[in-house]
Specification:
The structure holds two protein chains of two kinds. Chain A is α+β, with helices and mostly antiparallel strands. Chain A contains six helices and five strands; from the N terminus they run ββαβββααααα. The chains are: A alpha+beta, B alpha+beta. The interface between A and B is medium-sized, with 32 and 33 residues. The complex binds FE2/S2 (inorganic) cluster (2 copies).
Chain lengths: ~170, ~350
């Protein structure tokens, strides 16, 4: 057993786990934070996305021990009892999600992207979410939600593009 | 070289099968604060059915959707439902809910009629009020009527009902009959780009026009259509289960069973072609499964338009498309221009 101490959503949490425990397993089973989902357990789907020191990672691919001493953000840290996080609000507003299983991962990937503070185009948003699979929605309303959240949080605008032209230039 | 092409796919799809019993039941209870509780055996899988079913109950009772508390799918306690299958929920379960709400409302009308000095059939439920038709100023809050019904008249306003699209046996001689209650129709158009050196197909744009009867919640209808298109794109170009001779799946992971990501999705225009169906709740039919039906056909037609080859088995992977292009060119090797 190894003792692993994480700062999860601003709170220091310690658990004693077998060394092969993934960060996802520790979050879900030892810390009882079941927001990050176990989809594939092999890094394909992104349902387990959490932020480690601000970077979006697949928690199923990282050992808990590797995260020792690091700052972890999960979906549970975003909203308060009174209020949603602006990303969650934007997702709700456009009905971005359907079954919601991909939701925590999508939202954490979005947070990592917006937190970088770069100017974003629609294509860059699609790139950033390409590691998060969604079976239900076709991604369209999720991308709309990300654009709304980005514009709301940063006050910037995502440039309008004509997708039918843009694609053939690429 | 990359070639553009456009293609069209059309479909019809049946809603509410009638060859077997296909019932849904529901209970609607109006509470003394003017809200309502809806019990249904169907289950929400993300498509938004409970929202739509709550809207149907609210519309019938003249209250807001926020006033309806939906209790779903604990089969121990909720009324029977055939299931969240076959794109039947809005149509079949919706009809049951509308009838149940009507029954509950009838009790309110009977209780309110003497209070307003009219007959029950002269009343309507609008804006959280029971009011006299054409005389909206003669009205009572639903909460007051429900309270009166419950505690003074001793008639709690509860309605239960079931709906079963009339079962019609098929003629065993001819195989003819009426297997479904109603049908929906749709056309999708695809614009693709095909690379004739690699066979790679990119979907650039899709437009989708769907008839779903009355769109009770247009935003959710759009979500269903966009999701269906992504499934259709996977079906058309990417998704294939591969098995070895022992029936073992060769690609059991999402690493090698490839499904669409955000990068595979084209721009989509959705057009909801509303059409009132007299047999559906408030004219609604359904939208779920039909959304994925015409997509692959539209894409394969677009591939034909772009490079002149017919792909007749799915998915139209790059290998398959390239092979077809080579066969079209009589197997001659195409000379690649020298690199500059
Ligand atoms: S569960 Fe981690 S990527 Fe799928
Ligand atoms: S909403 Fe169901 S997987 Fe994304």
């Amino acid at each position: 057993m190894t003792d692993v101490t994480l700062t999860v959503n601003g709170e220091e949490r310690t658990a004693s786990v077998p060394p092969e425990t993934t960060l996802l397993k520790m979050l879900r089973e030892d810390l009882n934070l079941t927001g990050a989902k176990l989809g594939c357990d092999v890094g394909d789907c992104g349902a387990c996305t959490v932020l480690v020191d601000g970077i979006a990672v697949n928690a199923c691919l990282m050992l808990a021990g590797q995260a020792d001493g690091k700052k972890i953000e999960t979906i549970e840290g975003l909203s308060t009892l009174e209020e949603y996080h602006p990303i969650q609000k934007a997702f709700e507003e456009v009905a971005a999600l359907q079954c919601g299983f991909c939701g925590p991962g999508m939202i954490m990937s979005t947070k990592a992207l917006i937190d970088q503070g770069e100017d974003l185009s629609k294509q860059e948003i699609k790139d950033a979410l390409s590691g998060n699979l969604c079976r239900c929605t076709g991604y369209t309303k999720i991308i709309d939600g990300v654009i709304d959240a980005y514009e709301d949080i940063t006050g910037k605008k995502v440039p309008e593009t004509n997708p039918r032209e843009a694609q053939s230039a690429a | 070289m990359r070639h553009r092409g456009k293609g069209v796919g059309c479909m019809w799809y049946p809603i509410g099968f009638t060859v077997l019993a296909n019932p849904s039941a529901a209970t609607v209870k109006i509470n003394e604060d003017g809200t309502a509780t809806l019990l249904t055996g169907t289950v929400e899988t993300g498509q938004g059915s409970l929202t739509v079913l709550g809207q149907i109950a609210a519309e019938e009772l003249g209250i807001s959707t926020d006033d309806v508390h939906v209790v779903s799918a604990d089969t121990d306690t909720t009324p029977m439902d055939t299931g969240a299958i076959a794109s039947r929920t809005t149509y079949v379960t919706g009809n049951a809910i509308k009838l149940a709400a009507e029954n509950a409302k009838q009790i309110l009308f009977e209780v309110a009629a003497p209070m307003l000095d009219v007959r029950p059939d002269q009343l309507e439920a609008v804006d959280r009020k029971i009011q006299v038709q054409y005389f909206p100023q003669r009205c009572l809050p639903i909460a007051d009527v429900a309270l009166q019904a419950q505690f003074v008249m001793g008639r709690p306003p509860i309605g239960s009902a079931s709906y079963n699209p009339p079962t019609v046996a098929m003629d065993s001689e001819t195989g003819q009959g009426k297997p479904f209650s109603t049908y929906v129709y749709a056309t999708q158009c695809a614009e693709v780009e095909v690379d004739d050196e690699t066979g790679q197909v990119d979907v650039i744009y899709m437009s989708a026009a769907h008839d779903c009867g009355t769109a009770i919640n247009p935003m959710l209808v759009e979500g269903q259509i966009e999701g269906g298109i992504s499934m259709g794109i996977g079906f058309a170009l990417q998704e294939e289960m591969l098995f070895d001779d022992n029936g073992q799946q060769l690609n059991p992971n999402l690493t090698n069973y490839i499904m669409p990501t955000s990068l595979d999705m084209p721009e989509i225009d959705v057009d909801i072609v509303e059409n009132f169906d007299p047999t559906g709740p408030f004219g609604a039919k359904g939208v779920g499964e039909p959304t994925a039906v015409p997509t692959a056909a539209a894409i394969c037609n677009a591939i034909h338009d772009a490079v002149g080859v017919r792909i007749t088995s799915l998915p139209a992977t790059a290998e398959k498309v390239l092979k077809a292009i080579k066969a079209r060119d009589g197997g001659e090797q195409k000379a690649l221009p020298a690199a500059e």
